[in-house]
Amino acid sequence: MPIFDHFDFLAPFYETVIPPKVPQTLLTLADLPTQGALLDIGGGTGRVAQFLTGYASSVVVADLSLPMLAEAQRKDALLSVAAHSERLPFADGAFARIVMVDALHHVIDQRATAAELWRTLQPGGRIVIEEPDVRTLTVKVLALAEKAALMRSHFLTPTQIAALFEHTDASIRIEASGFNAWVIVEKT
User: Fold this and answer.
1) pLDDT given for residue 149 in this prediction
2) What burial letters (b/e) apply to 96-117, b meaning 16+ CB within 10 Å?
3) pTM attached to this predicted model
4) What domains appear along the chain, each with residue ranges and CATH number?
């Protein structure tokens, strides 16, 4: 079963299982507000993006799951686009901020996704990738559970995520707390 089928099935009750909350750490790490547009890649139902609408000129949720995007469209001020993260339908430098929350481990080609995020980020912009920290035992168990559910997830350590941008002139830093890690990538 392809990855998006799992999320198609989960879409109607996804936010019941994982309740939305203000992503305060993400707001800080993304250096919001910004005057430009913001992309939430792999943003699904808009669970995170709904809290970012007042912090950017526009907020776009891009995801592969149409049922997840249907949920996002029910939220005010979110634009939704069906797209593969490896081939984004946006112009070079279209976004001032790009966030990817709990989604990188679900994409097929993480290197191609990183290249697309970099391509669509404007100079002076910032990417924040938030992932479960696979260095923790709890997340290692989660990774095994996702494999058992045939989700084809591929978790990377924060250092491995940062290395996806090593071919660029990016300024990169890593932060971690609890079960989460954030890779912050700035385009000079």
Assistant:
1) 67
2) bbbbbbbbbbbbeebeebbbbb
3) 0.89
4) 3-186 (3.40.50.150)
